[in-house]
Amino acid sequence: MAMMRLRREDPRIVGAFRLHRRLGAGGMGVVYLGSDRRGQRVALKVIRPDLAEDQEFRSRFAREVSAARRIRGGCTARLVAADLDADRPWFATQYVPGPSLHDRVAEEGPLRAADVAAIGAALSEGLVAVHEAGVVHRDLKPSNILLSPKGPRIIDFGIAWATGASTLTHVGTAVGSPGFLAPEQVRGAAVTPATDVFSLGATLAYAAMADSPFGHGSSEVMLYRVVHEEPQLHGVPDALAPLVRACLAKDPEERPSTLQLSMRLKEIAAREAQGLPATRPPAQRERTEHSTGAGVRPTERYTEGGTQGRSAQGPAPRTGGSRTGGSRTSGSRTNGRQAAPQSRPNGRPAPSSRPGGRTTSTGLRPANPRLLRQRLFVFVVVTLVVALGIAAAQALQG
């Protein structure tokens, strides 16, 4: 996490903590790196002076502290101390070393499928504890996830709210970050644990693509896409795409639960780490087409974990245009999904994928390592049994 020197206007001591560096600043206040007399390092958030007299902001700050106290588990930074009655309210949590997921992806590019699945599994398990405490984060996004040596940590519960609460603080104003808000948040409907599942799906898509699944643009444009358009997941690995798409379902009832996500992502992480089975590129996903009122539209069906038989529509396709550099070039839309070109570095087309399995350049299917190990094990066992039988027979004859 980037640190900056204290400014002239920054306090040097808050409560029992001495401040050393600035860790960042947000809409509510400034976060400092501090330490107590025992040397314990903390991340200490102090509300901005101009907001200290605003009762609405004080209430929001109090909600963050209340949420931090209610949540149990290793998914969040542990609350160390707080003073909500001070002239400038503050609270301190355990300092979490490590960059945010946003910074990691910005510096290193898209993460491997195994890493995305492992991070997603830990976050899903953490959200289980958050939701069991009756809290919905409502602003889960890459910059609110810190990648510590002990695993990812969820931070910034500043707009966290009890399950079932509305997402509007003022009429027509949604609280959260465009591109990671769930459709029900944009509409001002009640939030539920499924709201965080949508944000987690958008966050995992960002980690896999280094881009938002809803592109870039003004807040109004981003909110419109979240509600009315399908996510763009062309760069998401094939092993993760169906699960991510299920998380981004417009209807909260169609999204998987955090427990289902945790179990499924753990399986994907283990399989991807071992390299078995190898996944196909996103452009080669099997799709089924069904007729709609606007024509033929490709869909993908997620049939794993606890969401078997649940269909999720593919992204709204675009031809003649693309999203680059934060904007989309002009072009017409069609009802077919445009597949990414498939080619090898030497210019030759990549071999096509067949339903029966992968094939090599010679047209033969590669050997299955697991099957080879099983056959070798059977051969060794049979050989040992025969050898023991012969030795026993010779001993009886002697």
Structural overview:
By secondary structure, this protein is of the alpha+beta class. It is 32% helix and 18% strand. It has 2 domains: 13-94, Phosphorylase Kinase, domain 1 (2-Layer Sandwich), CATH 3.30.200.20; 101-319, Transferase(Phosphotransferase), domain 1 (Orthogonal Bundle). A hairpin with a 2-residue loop joins strand 16 and strand 17. Helix 3 runs antiparallel to helix 8 (258-274) and helix 5 packs antiparallel against helix 7 (241-247). The longest helix has 29 residues, at 369-397.
Topology summary:
Layout: E1 13-14, E2 17-25, E3 29-35, E4 41-47, H1 55-70, E5 79-83, E6 90-94, H2 101-108, H3 113-132, E7 135-136, E8 145-148, E9 151-154, E10 161-162, E11 168-170, E12 173-174, H4 183-187, H5 193-209, H6 219-228, H7 241-247, H8 258-274, E13 288-292, E14 295-302, E15 310-313, E16 323-324, E17 327-328, H9 369-397
Antiparallel strand pairs: 1-2, 2-3, 3-4, 4-6, 5-6, 7-10, 8-9, 11-12, 13-14, 14-15, 16-17
Salient structural properties:
32% helix; 398 residues; EC 2.7.11.1; 18% strand; transmembrane helix; 2 domains; Ser/Thr_kinase_AS; single chain; alpha+beta; Transferase(Phosphotransferase), domain 1; Phosphorylase Kinase, domain 1
CATH architectural group of the largest domain: Orthogonal Bundle
Fraction of residues in helices? 25-40%
CATH class of the largest domain: Mainly Alpha
Instruction: Write out the CATH superfamily name of the largest domain.
Output: Transferase(Phosphotransferase) domain 1
Series of secondary-structure elements, N-terminal to C-terminal: EEEEHEEHHEEEEEEHHHHHEEEEEH
Q: What is the strand tally?
A: 17
Kindly report how far apart the N and C termini lie. 77 Å
Total number of domains: 2
Q: Widest sheet: strand order?
A: 1-2-3-4-6-5
Largest sheet, in brief, is: 6 strands, antiparallel
Keywords: ATP-binding, Kinase, Membrane, Nucleotide-binding, Transferase, Transmembrane, Transmembrane helix
InterPro entries: Kinase-like_dom_sf (IPR011009), Prot_kinase_dom (IPR000719), Protein_kinase_ATP_BS (IPR017441), Ser/Thr_kinase_AS (IPR008271)
Protein name: Serine/threonine-protein kinase
GO molecular function: protein serine/threonine kinase activity
